[in-house]
TrEMBL record:
Keywords: Heme, Iron, Metal-binding
Protein name: C-type cytochrome
Sequence ranges assigned to domain Cytochrome c in this UniProt record: 23-114
GO MF entries: electron transfer activity; heme binding; metal ion binding
Length: 116
């Protein structure tokens, strides 16, 4: 019992690794709705639509790699959102016609959703 308590004390509390400011996260959620990302993906905080064509974006905070190959970061995800084939040439996701700032807001929103 003492060992378990000691191990639990070493583990940091569960929380998002990427905490963005609230206005950027709100903008990201708005961009997701306007761009229709939910048509292909299940997205935290988006009740409808909840597409199944693309991978679920639930628990995105816990993802290790973007497109299965690049270490997760807001910058890499923002690049992927705007131009997926620049990150993964065989990606089937279409390029999204959004600004760099909006793509970064989308990435900030997704990483900021701690679904644990």
């Amino acid at each position: 019992m003492t060992v378990l308590a000691a191990l639990a004390a070493c583990k940091p509390p569960p929380q998002s690794r990427h905490i963005g400011d609230q206005s950027t996260m709100a903008r990201g959620k708005q961009v997701i709705a306007q761009a229709g990302c939910g048509a292909c993906h299940e997205i935290p905080g988006v009740a409808w639509p909840r597409g199944k064509l693309g991978p679920s974006l639930m628990n995105y905070d816990d993802i290790g790699f973007i497109a299965g190959s690049r270490p997760a970061s807001i910058a890499t995800l923002a690049t992927f959102v705007r131009d997926p084939r620049s990150v993964r040439p065989d990606s089937t996701m279409p390029a999204m016609p959004i600004s760099e700032a909006d793509a970064r807001a989308v990435a900030t929103y997704l990483y900021g959703q701690d679904d644990d």
